[in-house]
Amino acid sequence: MKTAKTYFLGALLLGLAVFPMLVPNPYYIHLIVVIAIYAILLFGLDIVVGYTGEISLGHAALFGIGAYTTGVLVVKLGVPFWIAMPCSIATTAAFGALLALPALRVTGPYLAMVTLAFGTIAQIFINELDFITNGPQGLTVFKPVILGHRVTTVDFYYFSIVTAVLSLIVVNRMLKSFIGRALEALRASTIAADCMGVSVYRTKVLAFVLSAAFAGLAGSMYTFSEEYIAPNNFNFELTILFLLAVTLGGRKTRSGSIIGATIVVLLPNLLSDLELFRTITVVVAIAVVVGAGYALVKTSTSIRQLSVPLTAVAAFVVFGFTLEDIAEHRQTIFGLMILGVVYYLPDGIMGYLRDQVKRFRPNWVEAHEIIQDSGNKAATEAIASGQLSPHQGNLLEVKNLVMQFGGLKALNKVNLCVAKGSVHGLIGPNGSGKSTMMNVLTGIYTPTEGTVRYNGQSLSGRPASEIALSGIARTFQNVQLFGEMTVIENVLVGLHHTFNANLVDVVFNSRRYHEEERKARERAAGILEFVGLASLANEEARNLPYGKQRLLEIGRALGLNPSLLLLDEPAAGIPPADLPELTDMIRKIRSHGITVILIEHHMDVVMGVSDNVSVLDFGQKIAEGTPDAVQKDPKVIEAYLGSEVELPGHSKLQIVAV
Ligand SMILES: Nc1ncnc2c1ncn2[C@@H]1O[C@H](COP(=O)(O)OP(=O)(O)OP(=O)(O)O)[C@@H](O)[C@H]1O
């Protein structure tokens, strides 16, 4: 598959290299230049939309800011193009950082509104600052002169192709690295990403800055390609066009960006000719009818299911043939296309093709997903405990902890001491405050009162990612895996902290980065071996059965080299026959010097493996001691059963040794 891809890319590049000689028509050459420029922008937009899952309606404005920075510098200040272009990139990157600020506070439709406002304001500013931008009249910027030779359309064509290919290589390397994994983790679960030491704050800013930088480069090139820019070039319609391109081409693939760019560049040309548009509606209708017929015969699709797309396509043809002026309805057509794509091709054209390939070749996995190392270290060697500064006494000391939600005290003056190297059970009936305790310990909640000291140091005021990096790892009651990532990639996010390489290392594939990636993959493979998921390394996490997802969460948390591991109901969903294996695993984790806090409703697991057990009820600690002592405590039995009962016999706390 990789060879087929390489051949295809080689043929494409060769075709592009000879295109101006075979088709010397400047119109077609210019179209390909615009496709290359849009593709560069879409590589960047995909970082925000595809990878981090945010919506940006401000990329047309960033594109405009990049274009105008070059235009103003070249025309008004006489700055040479080779300085103006990096200035455009730097300026839009700075605006990207500005856009990241609201993205840290709001997401989804709210962020879309903020970025839309940014786009509108930017356009108004460009319009109003006419002493710099020439206002609505726009700026005329000729192609640069290099060594006495004015750059021609064909020269610029080659420059655009080379820049697009370089951008593709740069963005591809970034997104296939630990940086891309961190971005993708944010999309799936910001809380889990934070708890794996991936700072949501830094990663979001990075995503917006990188994305905006590509928009700046594209904008700067657009200025030279068009030789004229005006505020209207960067309007709302362009934003919609960019979003359509990313969605239609397919998220998280560079080929999707290129396909999307090609479609949206050609689309307005197609939509400017009414006759051509009508022909397209008929061709689309025939394709849909043939597809529907095939689906009806070959699959279990019913006529009822097909009635919606068939009616929609019939309406599309009627719409095409009743239109008088197509230009007026362009935005409506784009909007309808987005609707259709979101509904029928949610993963875009590339996503659809990938699904088809997987259908016909179920064992196919993308090359980068495969564990490339032979010689894995032994599974147990992959488990390491973080190095703590020497500190006498308990690893964790919680004093008078109160966590209040409105009028409810989920934790009420709780004291808890956890000895180094022990397994400490934390039990209690539903709603007693166990998960709240986990969330406070990992920095998700800021406690209302009280102190938490870990290895002698206060945790108060420290963000979740910092707490994680100090050696506290966790799993979640409601599994929070990075579902679209493979099993091994999930563990690699846990190993994010092992990378010292920077962006430059990644882009130039430096030896340092290469070595770190190799070691991380080797460790991840060892960890998967340890949690019994090695054979599923290349499976998407969302496809695992629930019990295995829990094991994967443990593996991902072990990647952090934790000194303290918080396990929130690890046995939930694990078949009873496999529970002894789980308790064994917890013991092995302890034998590596990792302290464990275990929340569990399976009493046989918690009592079988814990050195000490604390019991919560209505936010208060009601008992503490060895498993034996706790299970005989009448207060504990009352809390669980709601009334005094005799021990043992009817107790839910009846213990089965594991
Ligand atoms: N973010 C929140 N906002 C409001 N109330 C909350 C929040 N988180 C937890 N609570 C409440 O705090 C109490 C303790 O909840 P918590 O999830 O910690 O209990 P638990 O012991 O983990 O229960 P379970 O065993 O069912 O998971 C519950 O009454 C819950 O509704």
What does this structure look like?
The model is unreliable at 367-376 and 643-658 (pLDDT under 50). The protein has 26 helices and 14 strands. A 6-stranded mixed sheet has the order 10-11-12-7-13-14, with helices on both faces. Among the domains are: 15-237, no CATH class; 389-483 and 548-641, Rossmann fold. The longest helix has 27 residues, at 200-226. Helices cover 58% and strands 10% of the residues. Helix 2 (26-51) runs parallel beside helix 7, helix 2 packs across helix 8 (178-188) and helix 3 (59-75) runs antiparallel to helix 4 (81-105). It binds adenosine-5'-triphosphate. Adenosine-5'-triphosphate binds next to strand 6 and helix 17.
Radius of gyration: 29 Å
Whole-number average pLDDT? 87
Q: What ligand species are in this complex? A: adenosine-5'-triphosphate
Instruction: Report the span from N to C terminus.
Output: 48 Å
Main sheet properties? 6 strands, mixed
- How many strand elements? 14
**What sort of overall outline do the alpha carbons produce when their principal axes are compared?**
elongated
Strand order of the largest sheet: 10-11-12-7-13-14
Counting copies of identical and different chains, the oligomeric state is: single chain
Could you name the ranges where pLDDT drops below 50 across 5 or more consecutive residues? 367-376, 643-658
In percent, how much strand structure appears in the residues?
5-15%
SS field, number of helical segments: 26
**Helicity, as a percent range:** 55-70%
- The helix-and-strand class reads alpha/beta
